[in-house]
Amino acid sequence: MRRVTARHVCRRPVITTPITPASWSHAEAFVPEDDVLAAARARAEEVGVVPISPGGGASLRFLASVLEARAVVEIGTGTGVSGLWLLRGMRGDGVLTTVDIEAEHQRLARQSFTEAGVASQRARTISGSALDVLPRLTDGHYDLVFCDGDKREYSAYLAEALRLLRPGGVVAFDNALWHDRVADPAQRDEETVAIRELGRTVAAHEGLLSVLLPVGDGLLCAKKVWSPDDED
């Protein structure tokens, strides 16, 4: 019998059937949302905020749980939808630091956290521009940084996240597919170009291990890989 070695194995690209709307909807609803999250979503609709999808939120909860996250930064508080998902995955003593330029949105988010029974000391809301606030946060202190702010600032958020994250920490960006625009090279508006360039930067970065999850409007995640310099 002829011995098959690695060089004799025929490698062919795996072609899968694109996901159907029914399967996408099934995946999005796989982890159901409760009344507290539904109320937070209703507040978001009232003030014109588009929160992370249920599938994206469940992914954030999963990441926070796997990381046993004690310290998380969120850029874009909204009315608390993503914050609730993050807090539910974090350790019981974990603290969410969430930043938003709209103080009224943060008031509504605090209402959502209260309804969920989240202790006030576990959710620190900071009103202001993310690029003004983030430089004041502690280097290497955070387990997870979630970005859902101004898409044109995503590359700047990445630079801040790399400083804020501990080795092994994760940065995640919502709207990484941006309503199917990122995959279409004909789309050249400022926000689409910024998100597209972010994806290229993350994929090529030697210090990041990345994945693009097709949940919601796309969730781009990257782990900060440990390096000897991290011990300096």
What report would you give on this structure?
Helix content is 37%, strand content 19%. With 232 residues, the chain is α/β, with parallel strands linked by helices. The chain has one domain: Vaccinia Virus protein VP39 (Rossmann fold, 3-Layer(aba) Sandwich). Helix 2 packs antiparallel against helix 5 and helix 3 packs parallel to helix 4. The N terminus is likely disordered.
Name the features.
232 residues, alpha/beta, seven-stranded mixed beta sheet, 8 helices, disordered N terminus, S-adenosyl-L-methionine, O-methyltransferase activity
Concise structural overview:
The protein is α/β, with parallel strands linked by helices and 232 residues long. Helices cover 37% and strands 19% of the residues.
Q: Could you outline the blueprint of secondary structure elements for this entry?
A:
Elements: H1 21-28, H2 35-47, H3 54-66, E1 71-75, H4 81-89, E2 95-100, H5 103-115, E3 123-127, H6 130-133, E4 142-147, H7 154-164, E5 165-174, H8 190-204, E6 208-213, E7 219-224
Parallel strand pairs: 1-2, 1-4, 2-3, 4-5
Antiparallel strand pairs: 5-7, 6-7
Helix pairs in contact: 2-5, 3-4
Give the beta-strand count: 7
Please trace the helix and strand order, writing H or E for each element: HHHEHEHEHEHEHEE
The percentage helix is 25-40%
Please outline the major beta sheet.
Answer: 7 strands, mixed
Structural class: alpha/beta
Instruction: Extract low-pLDDT stretches.
Output: 1-10
State the end-to-end distance. 55 Å
Strand content: 15-25%
CATH class: Alpha Beta
Which term fits the overall shape? Answer: globular
Pfam family, one: Methyltransf_3
Keywords: Methyltransferase, S-adenosyl-L-methionine, Transferase
InterPro entries: Cation-dep_OMT (IPR050362), SAM-dependent_MTases_sf (IPR029063), SAM_O-MeTrfase (IPR002935)
GO molecular function: O-methyltransferase activity; S-adenosylmethionine-dependent methyltransferase activity
